[in-house]
Amino acid sequence: MSHHIVEVKNLRHVYPDGTEALKGVSFRIHHGESVAIIGANGAGKSTLLLHLNGYHSPTAGEVRIGDFLLSKGTLPGIRRTVGMVFQDPDDQLFMPTVYDDVAFGPLNLGLNGNELERCVADALERVGAAHLAAKAPYHLSGGEKKRVAIATVLSMSPDILVLDEPASGLDPYARRQLIGLLKEFRHTKIFTSHDLDLVLELCQRVILLKEGEVRADGPAAEILRDERLLAECRLEVPLSLQGCPICGKRQG
Amino acid sequence: MTSIEGALLDFKRLDRLAAGDTALHRLDPRAKVIVTFVFIVTVVSFGRYELSALVPFFLFPAILVGLGNLPAGYLARKVALLCPFALVIGLFNPLFDRAVALQLGPLAISAGWISCASIVVRAALTVGAAFVLLALTGFPAICSALERLGLPGMFVVQLHFLYRYIFVLGEEGGQASRALELRSFGAKRPSLATYGSLVGHLLLRTWLRAERVHRAMLARGFSGAFPTRTVGRFGMAEAAFVAGWTAFFLFLRLNNGAQLLGSLLTGHFS
Amino acid sequence: MWATSAATLAYSSAKLRRDFDERVPPLMGVLGAFLFAAQMINFTIPGTGSSGHLAGGILLTILLGPHAAFLSIASVLVVQALFFADGGLLALGCNIFNMAFVPAFMVFPLFRRLAGNAPGRLRLNVAILAAALVALQLGAFAVVLETTCSGIATLPFASFLLMMQPIHLAIGVVEGLVTVAVLGLAQKARPDLLRGSLEGRFDLGGKRVLLAFLVAALLVGGGLSRYASVLPDGLEWAVGKLTGKTELEASSGVHAALGAVQNKTALLSGYQLPAPARKEPGPASEKATAAGSGTGVAGVVGAVLTLAVACFCPYLFRGRRRTKPEI
Ligand SMILES: Nc1ncnc2c1ncn2[C@@H]1O[C@H](COP(=O)(O)OP(=O)(O)OP(=O)(O)O)[C@@H](O)[C@H]1O
Ligand SMILES: [Mg+2]
């Protein structure tokens, strides 16, 4: 299944004001992998994700999705393959009602009638937001917005799911729901998060960014245990891997 | 204008009312838009010294409020808030137009006062009807109805976007001005310079937001055209609604309803 | 006014659709919301202690170009008219003309001429200031003109004009200063913000097109408003024509028939409405009779009664609904 491979080679990105957000990032993600991109604020995570969908064009280097090099010609196809959920759900929900919002993508793909209905209902069901269909986005709570934002992307049945901080602002129950939801998604998942416990639970692999470079890339269990490495990157060992605050014993 | 938070709450309240579920709410928005339009045109078409003939028109918003299960007090208060503005427009009239138009016992009422009152009544009627329409239909549905009635698609998209992001930017603006208030110790309003930079930052944030929204649209296959989903249909109920009210308005336009009723009554009792 | 505004609306939409830039819709929408929010934050006007807020017509035009800005400002006005009855629903056509059409299509060309293609800081600021001033002066003038023409208020033209123009001179200066400050700050952070209007990307495609368009719009506007304008006088005339109930001919057709009906139904016929109108159908007495007809005792009684019914209406239906589920 080579067409779901995500490959980034020597990717550099310089913003118009001169900030060099990515300084030569390379990695390769295979089909079905679940990868977390972690790093401190401003490490370049969001910038990197925006390259996977062609919003930024590389200052240098290249991005390959499946068999296609990302370029103007391949962009529409790639955007169909890569479903992207943004950091701020208010950016993602721009239609009058939740239903319209979830239907926006499928309508653009040419779906209509029963097929559309089913697709939208299904996506909303999967994020547990079926009851919100008729509501306007501005009547939703933060967590509800987040879930609906994910539904807007699921409704397009992407092969690769990219999420920027999916868990921020969710209450524990909604967070748990999200974990279940993402576990269910069988294709490639790439997401950023500051919630390292969630990362530990969902990913086999972690890419650690530091100031626009890949500082480490490997199995989640290893990297998330490396106290020195994490501290160097302004991160902390996730709670579930820290010693128990009472007895000092480590789990697993 | 009121504070940002107040305005946003107001929006949300009207919007929630539109989520009601009565026969009127379920009616195709186009029918309601058309009837409201006819209503407003009819009311405005009255001469400037007309007063009593306008009064029966209050029946329209009142009946809709009743059938639509809307909070009458709330809507009335909203309309009442506006009356001072209409009064300001009309207040010059009594000064310039002093011909006596009506003698009620010892009281001589000048034409100016009547036209002033007429302006206020008309404003209350049209605004009331607009609020009722909003509360029964909701802004987005009104926009879609207008599009299907021929308003340019670009403008409708613009209205949708505006309405959606009023809530987001209103909150941002509200936060910014609250933050400013908290640090400006007592000075109630910012000076020009502070205001400039406050609004400038708001503008920058807005611009960035627009770029992000654009991205989110592209991510879901946006290529310029807004896909629309047509809902609702113009059936018998809608046709009857439009025809019935239009006939009613036309009747009231041609006859002074209050006069008819009044002469019937005074006639009966004397 | 409604006609001009509507024509411009259609024209701008068509124009934007033709040279479509898919980045524009979200930008227009969100900037409209920005304008909305910005208008609700008040500032103190130096020296006077009173407060004001941004009108923003020029600001948006410079950022978006005339067509997109026109639609954007118009949409803000529509929402304000609907939700706050700000300016009233009736004045919407006029408002769109004064606050969207004037800055976007009449003042923007001036701004372009003043600013040139690569203005320095000072020249740019002067151009912005001048544009804001002119926009508000023209807007105020238009308000006076419209009010007088509509005949809604009877304030004499000259004194109204004398009152409005100086006030708006002051407002224009403030608006200009604020616009300069806001754009200055924004441009420092994002130099690309103003690129569109400074490089002439938004030019209106030659003066001739503009002129032709203006003339067409005015013609259409003038022609239509005579027949269908919602401004009271035009419409009154139109309705009168349509139904044959011109006030001068009160005795003819429908009216007479109704008078007869009334004669039969009302036992006491002293207060009937058409009677005086029939006797003296002169233009001079038209005012008085129209008022008189509406305000005889019968009229007052009827008005009070219908009002009472109207007030009672909401509760009438409500009561029924409440009891229903219990059955
Ligand atoms: N539009 C922009 N213009 C200029 N610089 C930018 C822009 N967006 C981001 N940057 C800069 O690029 C760097 C990386 O930003 P990015 O948003 O990718 O960080 P992040 O890892 O997502 O951080 P966070 O955890 O806070 O979301 C930061 O230094 C930031 O200041
Ligand atoms: Mg980020």
Q: Helicity level of chain B, as a percent range?
A: over 70%
Oligomerization status of the protein chains: heterotrimer
Helical content class of chain A: 25-40%
Instruction: Give the C-alpha Rg of chain B.
Output: 23 Å
Q: What amount of the residues of chain A lies in strands?
A: 15-25%
| Termini Cα gap of chain B | 51 Å
Name every ligand kind in the structure.
adenosine-5'-triphosphate, magnesium ion
Output the strand order for the largest sheet of chain A: 6-7-8-3-9-10
Give the tally of structural domains of chain A: 1
Please mark out the parts of chain B with pLDDT under 50 across 5 or more consecutive residues, or reply none.
Answer: none
| Overall number of strands of chain A | 10
- What summary fits the major beta sheet of chain A? 6 strands, mixed
| CATH class division of chain A | Alpha Beta
Percentage of residues in strands of chain B: under 5%
CATH homologous superfamily identity of chain A: P-loop containing nucleotide triphosphate hydrolases
Distance between the termini of chain A: 34 Å
Tally of contiguous helical segments of chain A: 10
Q: Which class best fits the helix and strand makeup of chain B?
A: mainly alpha
Order of helices and strands of chain B: HHHHHHEEHHHHHH
Mean pLDDT of chain B: 79
Question: What is the general shape of chain A?
Answer: globular
Pfam families (chain A): ABC_tran
Protein name (chain A): ABC transporter ATP-binding protein
Subcellular location (chain A): Cell membrane
Keywords (chain A): ATP-binding, Cell membrane, Membrane, Nucleotide-binding, Translocase, Transport
